[in-house]
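Quick one: structure for this chain?
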Amino acid sequence: MGYARFPNMNTFMTPGESALPEGVEQEGGPIDGSEASREGPQAPWSWPTTSVRWVVAITLAIVALAAVLRLGGITREPFWLDEIFAYDFTSGTVTQTLSAVARDVHPPAYFLGLLAWRSAFGSSEGLLRGYSTLWSIVSILLIGALASEAARSRTAFLVAALLAAVNPLDIYFAQETRMYAQAAALGALSSLLLLRYLLRPTPERNAVGRRWLLLGYTVAAALLLLTHYIGITILLAQGLFALAFFAAHRRWKDVGRYCLSAVAVAVVFLPWLLYVDRLRSGLYTSRILSWIPPASLSTAWAVYARDIFWGRPGLPSRWWPAAELASAAILAVTAGLLLVRARLRESDAGPSPSHGTGAAFLAWMALAPAALALLISDLYHPVLYHPRFSELMVPPVIALIAVAATTSARRVAAITLIAAVVAVELGAAGLQYGYLEKAGMRGFVKVWRHDGPPEAVYFYPRWNRRVAHYYLHRRMPVPSRAELERRLREDRPVTIWVCTNIGYRPDVPAGEKQVRDWLLSLGPSREIARVDRMSVVEVQARPVARTYPPLPLGAVVGLGSHDADRYLWSGWYGPERTFRWSRGTKAVVLFSARGAAAGATELVVKGSCYSMQHVRAELNGTTLAFFECRDREFREWHWKIPAGTLREKNTLVLELPDAVSPAELHRSRDTRKLAVGIASLRLR
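Got it. Here's what it folds into:
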């Protein structure tokens, strides 16, 4: 019997209905679970009858169970950094969302969907996570359909759906405002459509249906790639299997059709690639991926031995060997059942050419993407971060286990396998619920409201600041070192909080450690709280003692560089190109006049005024000048120094009552209070 004559297998047929031609036997027995057509000790054992009515009822019960597991405690854990990125990216218009995402590291499909979801349902944490929950439940049904298509059994649908419903990793990502649940669902959908296309018969009367399958696969594949770039490993694995399958069965037209589908996916993705290229160089860069550790075989092993069955519970290290052993046992039994079934098929008379195709496809999809991710990590950049990549491997692995169990002739082994997987997953889900903690800032907000607010807050690592901003609904003061030094010159202490993740080591090459140590050295400090995995240390920074750097006679001090900072005590912004603006209504300059400088009779200041200003200049309490300034261009102001006014330590004070911001004058959005710009000063 040629493969071209093998008809389509409709997964959900009514009892007694067959998709096979008269006289042709179905692989593994009739789909409704009635007595197998093959007699003898090697025949697969019969599962209970699964009529459409029972399938629907059990499916609804599984979906209800999945919803309870995913919605229960969905707001118990706080939003963490990546979820806050998703919140921020979708807080504007479509154009703003696309621009923000393009500057980040992910494609736009998930964020556009979340933006629409927010517009329809709201922006609370539970509602935003509900978008991932919806994708997770869709994924459960698709995993069931994938197993059913491979095993040609409604029972496989129910078993796979049950295993997916209690899977702890899928529960975790169903409660997170990130794209992984959507990517897993689209990966399952594309695999399902491609598998149906592979097993679909080729007569012309079915050509329309096959074209729709290929079109659906193309759309799902494009959406997967636009949901997460790592989806390319799924698509490459699918493509390699499909091309090998078509070539083995001499379906050369299907080779061409699949290649056209791949080109269509590339064409759909190209506009996004060009858009990203306008905003930054490349989809991935070393800086963006620097946090991903190098991948190895142990990384790939963690996908199957830890993540898929155990989720993210944070087990104690002493438990992991036993956990990995349990995972290895599950995988070994699955492989054993499949191998036994394959040997039974080989011994059957007149096997169908499609025997084992579904199981082989699932086995390939369970292994090849991780191998491809390893290869990409070795040749390009590290991309295999197993705690997240593993979610994409849940559909093929769970479907493969269901196929192994429901097509097995070993009743005890099959039931034991299913029971073991359910037990492990439920236990891991319980541990995950009880012990997993996301790095949010709810505790920090309570400390802020009770002991704060401080005048400056510094976070190590620095990205915690973004999480704190989200929970406080405000921007916290994080002055630069130069700005903090200027504040400490105002003769009053400054309250500083230094918040460091417990166990975090500030980066020495980046200067983090030096700045943190300097902050802690500014005055008396005490730890006021340990919350959200952070130590919050309050520092009462002492005012900086006044210093009077020498100003030699005739020497010009240019204020456009940081070298002038030692002369500028308070009331100044940072340097511009050749000058700097005064800050607020008072600006102070300190200098020492020694030797020949002590005989100076004039202070020459080169300056300009932002708008009409009344300027009073006092040296050591004596007025040098009081004038109305309208000069927008820089010019020299010559201020006579009365005899006896100049001392060894000198304080020059500029009183600027008319300081105004460009925003107040509707010239720009600049809110700085500007009065005069000073380019240089000198004694003569």
